[in-house]
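$ fold --in a.seq
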Amino acid sequence: MHQNPHTKRRTRSLSSALAAVAVVVGLGLGPTPGAHAADNPYERGPAPTNASIEAVRGPYAVSETTVSSLSVTGFGGGTIYYPTSTSDGTFGAIAVSPGYTGTQSSIAWLGPRLASQGFVVFTIDTNTTLDQPDSRGRQLLAALDYLTQRSSVRGRVDATRLGVMGHSMGGGGSLEAAKSRPSLQAAVPLTPWNLDKTWPELRTPTLIVGADGDTIAPVSSHAEPFYENLPSSLDRAYLELNGASHFSPNTSNTTIAKYSISWLKRFIDNDTRYEQFLCPLPRPSLTIEEYRGNCPHTS
């Protein structure tokens, strides 16, 4: 049976096209298993699981260094916790402020807990333990500037990917810091206190953590209005802890860690692998009284 010349040409063209595809795949120019990581150069660590974000320690071994108050200006020194390995390149960083009358020891547990997930974490002391939120906000920014410009670990930090956290007046301070520096990638105020209730200026993705039993910064007059007065277009969330007090963020807390890690990973590392823990919104549980927010916007 004779083939039509046009059919022959089409067959040859198809064969050539298939051969070209084979060559491309053979040369490794087609999709590769590592393509997902290449899409996001900031991705750090293995794919997360519920167990991995609830764990007391993440995949990275952690080292720490003490920063004397005598060697810095603008804040009171502190402790830097950082992944020991340099094989993954630089990491995003977070400065954490204690609350009124508190020292860095009151928020120290967050240092190794977050650093072991792939962040450089600076738990700071404030200039005085009585500093107000606006001062604590400035001190958080001074600490980040020291961390990225002068610290012994500055080579491990990506200065474009920074966040702030804080407890009580330090939480109010983290809102002040985000207001002053819109380039911050994430803010996580923990049982925050501030006389300013409205934050329409914020452009930083913000997770506010309140406590149902807080009598010092009651959620009805602090955490809830802070959240409600963030721009509705912002990536924002409100997590209210169940059976918790104002001081719940001062000791190791799995719920705080789980959602803080997810928030920081999603917005500082742009790591969409963590969206599964933020969307759909977490449901009330033994540890969660309420959760409000929006699913993270995809960039």
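$ fold --in b.seq
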Amino acid sequence: MRGGRWRTYPLAAVGERLPGGSRVKLAMTEIAVQQRLGAISLVEARPQTGRTHQIRLHLAAIGHPLLGDTRYGGASTYQSQQLPHHLLHAAQLSLQHPATGKPLQLSAPPPAIMQQIMEQNR
């Protein structure tokens, strides 16, 4: 993606050496539309790998950058409203607790700006 620090590569390029010496790594994200809200959509993204900016890159690569994600082609405003940051939100995270190793489930409601935009478009 032009303008961003990271980029996507074709699947055939996985393993190829990059100019800095690192190699192209596989990145996979499952994406599903949860709700269409007029000109925008609420999507669920489930990364299957853990690459830097992975969700942002994958959505931009298919022509649907995150609202507010100007680094990867997203609009900085929505309906004349300035967006303070990209609208990527981790609603749920599942991981092993670092000390006990037991499963840990975390959840959080969307930030106010995201809730406001979703309500305006229902």
